[in-house]
């Protein structure tokens, strides 16, 4: 009974160890691989700071307002002069429609440049952060997006809390900037009707311009912290566990059996190319039963003799068979054959340490052919 209890206790301890190892293996602690980053970008999963876009829009809107206000003032003065002359006009339906059309077209003409600049600034600021990304997956219909349980979980997630805090901080900054600006000009607001149209537009011009600039700079400072947070959160979402990295490697590189088959096929092709070069050799140096090395030397084209093919066992026998078929002289030199086989790759020149031995072999070959 005591032995049975100890055995059960050891089994429970072993189960705990195994479970802990499994849990540890699934922790996403490794940085994302380049393939995972490419896939995330293909799916439209990128990080960018909306606060940076908002700051750029506000700053450029302030600049645009600064440049357009003189023109706006002239257009508004012209429109107001038309409105002031209404007492002498007949308020018929045609006159009212004409006045409404004039007011709408004037308003659209005034705000069109500002809207154009803001739209272009939004596009450019996003491209500057993430580049050009085209993906339909973010707008694809998915069950988890319309699942009320998933939506409820997203509402109370840390991401939602961070977004709420960021929005509150941005709203607080804008409210603080607006309060400071209006507080500074508060004494002028009751007197605006007495300043005339030029004084009214000048005061409004100063107030709006200062508001845009200060809000833009405040949000630009906020966007730096937001960009760092977005990058951290993005990197965290892409983290991988060790099993995921191994599985991705298997999918990209194939199974070990497939990789072995590919390597074997590559070796076969390399041997076939090597065998095709054997007929061009000047000599085949052999260690009769084990090694065969085919050498070529052209004094006009080569700085040193070159190894065209080498092999051991059956490959060596095949090299010698091709040599006999093409009447290539074979020289038996055991130490030289072993040194060439072990130290020189196919297609490489022989090292300087073997010049003397190979020169003696080539001299023997040239004498056999009657070349010297």
Helix and strand topology:
Elements: H1 2-25, H2 34-42, H3 50-84, H4 93-130, H5 143-146, H6 148-155, H7 158-184, H8 196-238, H9 242-253, H10 256-277, E1 283-287, E2 291-296, E3 306-312, H11 314-325, E4 330-332, H12 334-343, H13 355-369
Helix pairs in contact: 3-4, 3-8, 7-8
Could you characterize what this model shows?
The chain is mainly α. The protein is 70% helix and 6% strand. It contains 13 helices and 4 strands. A 4-stranded mixed sheet has the order 3-2-1-4, with helices on both faces. A hairpin with a 3-residue loop joins strand 1 and strand 2. Helix 7 packs antiparallel against helix 8. The longest helix is centred in the middle third of the chain and has 43 residues. It is elongated and about 125 Å long. It starts with a helix and ends with a helix. The N terminus is likely disordered.
What would the keywords be for this entry?
372 residues, mainly alpha, 4-stranded mixed β-sheet, 13 helices, 70% helix, elongated, disordered N terminus
Structural class: mainly alpha
N-to-C series of helices and strands: HHHHHHHHHHEEEHEHH
Count of helix runs: 13
Share of residues in strands: 5-15%
Strand order of the largest sheet: 3-2-1-4
Low-confidence blocks of residues: 1-25
Tell me the total number of β-strands. Answer: 4
Helix content class:
55-70%
For the termini, the CA-CA separation is: 96 Å
| Mean residue pLDDT | 76
* Biggest pleated-sheet summary: 4 strands, mixed
- C-alpha Rg (nearest Å): 41 Å
Shape: elongated
């Amino acid at each position: 009974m005591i032995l049975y209890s100890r055995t059960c206790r050891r089994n429970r301890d072993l189960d705990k160890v195994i479970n802990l190892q499994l849990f540890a293996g699934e922790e996403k602690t490794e940085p994302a691989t380049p393939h995972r980053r490419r896939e995330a970008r293909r799916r439209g999963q990128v990080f960018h700071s909306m606060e940076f876009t908002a700051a750029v829009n506000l700053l450029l809107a302030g600049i645009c307002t600064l440049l357009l206000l003189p023109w706006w003032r002239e257009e508004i003065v012209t429109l107001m002069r038309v409105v002031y002359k209404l007492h002498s006009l007949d308020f018929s339906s045609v006159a009212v429609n004409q006045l409404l059309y004039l007011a709408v077209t004037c308003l659209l003409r005034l705000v069109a440049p500002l809207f154009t600049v803001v739209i272009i600034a939004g596009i450019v600021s996003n491209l500057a952060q993430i580049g050009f990304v085209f993906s339909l997956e973010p707008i694809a219909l998915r069950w988890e997006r319309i699942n009320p349980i998933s939506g409820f979980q997203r509402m109370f997630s840390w991401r939602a809390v961070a977004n709420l805090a960021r929005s509150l901080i941005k709203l607080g900054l804008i409210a603080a900037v607006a309060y400071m600006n209006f507080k500074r000009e508060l004494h002028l607001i009751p007197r605006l009707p007495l300043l005339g149209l030029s004084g009214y537009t000048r005061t409004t011009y100063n107030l709006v311009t200062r508001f845009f600039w200060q809000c833009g700079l405040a949000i630009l400072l906020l966007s730096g912290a937001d960009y760092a947070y977005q990058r951290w959160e993005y990197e965290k979402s892409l983290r991988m566990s060790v099993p995921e990295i191994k599985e991705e490697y298997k999918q990209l590189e194939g199974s070990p059996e497939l990789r072995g088959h590919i390597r074997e096929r590559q070796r076969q092709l390399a041997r076939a190319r090597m065998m095709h070069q054997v007929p061009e050799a000047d000599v085949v140096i052999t260690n009769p039963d084990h090694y065969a090395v085919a050498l070529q030397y052209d004094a006009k084209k080569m700085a040193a003799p070159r190894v065209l093919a080498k092999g051991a066992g059956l490959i060596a026998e095949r090299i010698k068979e091709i040599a006999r078929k093409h009447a290539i002289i074979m020289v038996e030199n055991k130490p030289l054959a072993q040194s060439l086989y072990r130290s020189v790759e196919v297609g490489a020149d022989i090292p300087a340490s073997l010049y003397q031995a190979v020169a003696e072999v080539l001299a023997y070959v040239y004498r056999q052919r009657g070349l010297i």
